[in-house]
Predict the 3D structure of the following.
Amino acid sequence: MLKNLNPISRRRFVAGALGSGAAVAAPAVLTGAQAAGELKMATFYALSGPGSLFGPTQTACTKLAVDEINAGGGIGGRKVTVIPSDGGAPPAEAAKAAIRLMLRDKVDIVVGSHDSAVREAIVAALKGRVPYVYTPLYEGGECNPNVYVTADTPQQQVQPSITWLAKTLGAKTYYLIGNDYVWPRKTNEQAKKYIAAAGGKVVGEEYVPLGAPNKFEDAVTRIKAKNPDLVVITLVGGDNINFNRTFAGFGLDKSIKRISYLLEEQTLAGIGDKSSNGLYSAMSYFENEKSAANAKFKAAYRKAAGAKAPPLAMIGVDTYGGINCAKALIEKAGGTDAAKLMAAANNLQYRTPTGTGVMTNRHVVKDMYLAECKGTSFDIVETFKAVAHGQTCS
Amino acid sequence: MASFLGHSAALIAALAVLPQLVGEFWAYTLALYFLYAIASLGIGLCWGQAGFLPLGQAMFFGLAAYLSGLSLIHFKDSWLLLLLLPGAALAPGLLAYGIGLLVFRGRTLSGPFFAMITLALTLLAFQIANSWNDVTGGFNGLKNIPGLPGLSDFTDLYYISAVALAVCLLAIAWLRRAPAGVLWRAVAQNEQRVRFCGFAVQNVKAAVFGLSGVLAGIGGALYAPQQNLVTPQLCGFLLSADLVIWAAVGGRATLYGPVVGAVLIGILTADLRDEISYWEVILAAIFIVVVLYFRQGLMGFVEPLFERLSRRRAGRTLDSPARPQATGDTGFALDDVRVRMGSVSILEGLDLAIDRPGIYCLIGPNGAGKTSCFNAMTGELPVRSGHIRIFGNTRTGAGADLLSRIGVGRKFQAPSLFPDLTVAENFNIGLWGGRARLRDLLRMDSHGWTSAILREAQARFPFLADEDRRAGDLSHGQRQILELVMVLIAEPRLILLDEPSAGLSQTETQEVIDAIRWVSGRHNACTVIVEHDMTFVRELADRIFVLHQGRLLASGTVAEVQADERVRAVYVGASA
Amino acid sequence: MDPILTTNILNVVYEVSTLAVVVLGLAVVFGLLGVMNLAHGEFVMIGAYCAFFVQTQSLPFLAAVPVALLVCIVLGLAVERILVRPLYARPFDTLLATWGLSMLLREGVEAVYGRGFKSVAVPLTDSIDVLGADYPSYRLLLAAVSIALVAGLVWWFVRSATGRRIRAVVNNRELAGSVGIPVTALARNTFIFGCCLAALAGVMLAPLLPVNPTLGLDFILKSFFVLVVGGLGSLVGLISGAGVIGGVESIVSAFLDRTYGYTTVLVIAILFLWLRPNGLFPRT
């Protein structure tokens, strides 16, 4: 899937396999390898593992962003070269790749869209020596130096959507179900706060192990017994699909509304049109977002990626904003010096598929959307302007 | 010894100059794979040496990584780390030893079940690491783990890993050559014979498993400060599986196999997974091919050559320590012993007592319970009721290893020895049993043990002097004699022989008869022989016991028994 | 009766009966060949992909059954010949080889269909009133078909000549061979049969699962635990194993949470492997 991304990177990988030989011959070549003018950008996308269904979109959106940037003269006059790595690998593998990219390839910046464990590994490997832009949605709290987060935070996803749903649907009782790890728990922490603020009540909360063979008949039966007004779902991937299909299979979709906080176009396709009735999602991107910016983005994407373009979805499209953030950051700082980048990040403005993002505390204030599923597509029912990210990184 | 030192020097030199040759990045990469390789070495010990397959080594690797990570986080820069980090490496070893003792206890053939238990345990370990958020950090793991104090450079980390790997390799190389290694390979081939030589096999296997836990622990304990991050995947099934694949492809029975497998496949995978989209498919296919056709793995082609070249057996110059002098009465007594298998009754209240030295024969038609009598006496068959006294003490249900240590020897009907070991190693297992202390099992000197009986046996049976032959290459008759000698060199006071003359030529039979007589007389032993060959019985037996349908039918001298009407009736009915 | 209780009972019946179909295939192969086929779950996965395949060809759902059987007969034949037969007497190696096969099949399917989740439409979308509880009719049908399938197969094992031969081989391989039972052919057919049973379960379950290449892993683990707990002796063992594993997980999950449910199942499996490796109903 990466084969046509960049011929240079391909050769570089071959060199990697034979790298020991090259290094034996001329270690000095490595230190002097940085060609002037070229800006090397390493990317970590899920090319293997459970997240790899997002890989093609991540790669295609990156190609679009980089082509646009290079067509416009590059970043600060330097042409961008992408060196892809696997963000779906185990954390130790990702860390190893990060070290390789930093030491041998001397990359200028790293962009990543992958889970938090891999992020921690990359952060630990880079130790702030190379700037790192992290793009998908996550649980918040990443404040390490020289790390720039364009991801959606729980505050951004939950606060406006729960408030809106409580008011519009008149939801009084809530049932929370998620996978047992930090993102669902942090997200539900926020959710419980806003449910209480809206005068609602949590009637049930449960977590299922991540990566276990989960079945949801018993959970759905429990939900049926509690009969809440709204189910707040923080399940991911296969569990999210499985739960929602079981939920609708038992006919609960007719009377109970659901909101899922990691539901984009690809997961929705897995859930299928028979099981998506009364299901909502809240994120910073949906393909059906109606702005002129998005229309332009989509047209450019279709033109670049062709007829067989991978589907546009939040996890994937996030990289487009991330790369534009990297561009704005380096140009504003006038280089990749860590201290200057950190200073430049404050009130940084950059281009996103749907408009403009504004960075504060190395997180992004952004527009959020609440969408209702209609079959296997999203219908945006509300737009929340400039939602705060709730992070306090200094 | 010289070759061992030369070998060590070469290994250390190679590891020391490597980073200068390959540069910083590859030094860093190698460092990580060295840590995995150390864990994989443990699989080589368990699977390649002792013959049981652990499918959950990652649980030990992960445990050590978590312990080491937590220590580094909570005791950053404290001198306590000097205790805590080695503790983190040793704790998984203790856990593995404990698991081994529990699982292997009272189980002779634990093969696939053991593998599946370790697999389930590693899934459990993953589950715990993944959900115990307060301690392990849950799915996202322990983050921001400080490095080892005073080390920051990637090359420093390389040297730490390389030193750990070199130490582990040298220790294993030593153990493989030491008597302990011979004992492990013996366990892999014939657990029963090892037990009947007086070794508690479950302890041997648990010790190997414990050692593999320490190896995984060393890898894991160094992983945390090197990677600064520990996630539940480190306890998971996939890493466990990778460790097994590396050991298998590299060569599980060889010293360097697991290291070569881990470093080669690991590095290829790391670089090719991005490049070749079918890499995982190819790797799976390679693994299947290795399992099917190249069980010895890559190093299996290379290492045996060197081993053969470097193996020079020293002569037997050291008299083995004397066995502890057993006290108590002579002989044994079975009192109303009953044994059932399913719905079939095998021993129906057998009474049998022998209380003075001599040679006794146990005869009776097929199915009379002769071999079962031996099996009941040596704990191989569960006794439902009745008592068994040996040397005056109640030993009902006692295990073969204990009995061997107090002076009971048993030869089986089909020769039971270690076909893939040399004749010398077969003898040594017999010599070490009941005599060698743990210390002796770690000393190379113990290979040179000998004893008067061994010397005598080699004089009587000259083929036994060619000690470098594979035991499995001997003829059937020779193997019978080898097993007999293995039993005899333990100097038992109660010798149970199950058809020792089966498959022997006339001359060999005569030699065996002489040997039995000699040993019996020399040690004042009580020898009980199950035998069909009446010439053999007539020549040897002081007294005969006739078994029929699980009971004692008659006893007496040959003449008395032959005159007994009941015995005649049984034999006429059974074999005309 | 309380509709929620009814629903819970039906859930257990559904889970146990569908699991039993998968386990039956694994148990027959293990019983007859002594081979623990760690790729068994991948045959479930292939069955599920067959259901997805016929859907993309706009064929009716039931067309997946012959497609899946055909695919698994061909695959099973090849696997038995190349992998299983040469390794009969090497239990570790069969374990490892079939596990290598499971990787191969998983990665192979991934190469064709990708990692993404495929969705198969549920053939029956309405629900039926059972004692006051609305229960999805496809699940009820699935439970009924599974029970019928298991019962029918057991009846066939007991009654038919082939069934008697299989039992003879299970009891004593050499003896069966010496009295003229074609052991090799029987073993081959049994292996294929086990694969087909798994695939059939895969077809049936496809509409209720997120179809993806790693789906088989869940089944092999659970099926294996069922065998460990129930033992290989009898249908009673198989069903009680499925009942214990399925039931304990549901009950613990209901009282504590799913994490504890799953952990408890693992602990039970470990205890059985350790203390009662022949299960509740051992083969005599």
Q: What stands out?
A: Chain A has two domains: 7-152+291-360, 154-283+371-387. Chain A touches chain B at residues 1-2, 10, 13-14, 16-17, 19-20, 23-24, 27, 30, 47-48, 84-86, 89-93, 95-97, 99-100, 103-104, 116-117, 120-121, 124-125, 180-182, 185, 209-212 (CB under 8 Å).
